[in-house]
Amino acid sequence: MNNIGIENLYKTRYNKFVKKIGGRIGSRHNAEDVVQEAFCRALKYKDAFNPEHKELGAWFNTILNNCLKDFKREERNGKPMQEYKEEEIVGHSQPTDNQNLIDKLEEEIGAKEGKTRDVLFLYFIRQYRPKDIRHIIDMKVKCIKTIAWRFKVEMNGKYGELFNT
User: Fold this and answer.
1) Are 52 and 42 contacting, i.e. CB atoms less than 8 angstroms apart?
2) Which parts of the chain register pLDDT below 70?
3) How far is CA 81 from CA 3, 36, 72, 74, in A?
4) Which residues have C-beta within 8 Å of that of residue 41, sequence separation ≥ 6?
5) What percent helix, strand, coil does the chain show, rounded to 5?
6) Architecture of domain 3-76
7) Domain extents in the chain
8) DSSP classification of residue 112
9) Does the global pTM surpass 0.70?
């Protein structure tokens, strides 16, 4: 799939998506953030779109709903979506042990290839459920769970108790 379909969706339905999400979270500003994140993810995972499986609008709605869930979860946990501290931008902050583990995890996932890397990223970094991942990546839930389980076993072997997800 090329970017044209996503661009047309953006041009024709952006305001509709913002209004829809705004009604669910109560703020146009936050709704714009969620919709923009959804379009970024759609562009990133455009190769996972299968027109024989789903229509573009339905595929995008799945991504949009996942972004909304992520936003609400992060809001409940007290951390805003994609927020960066000034020290991190300037480069003066010291990473915590937890951040070091996340960095190792991202590095290990980045070393994987193809759909395996995408599944692991969505599962461990974005914390999507397997049934949500199957809508983004055309793969059975059982296969997604197997990939995640094998990765956990591999990471427990490398990092021991540190990796307890």
Assistant:
1) no
2) 1-2, 78-99, 161-165
3) 25, 11, 9, 6
4) 63, 66, 67
5) 75, 0, 25
6) Orthogonal Bundle (1.10)
7) 3-76, 95-162
8) S
9) no
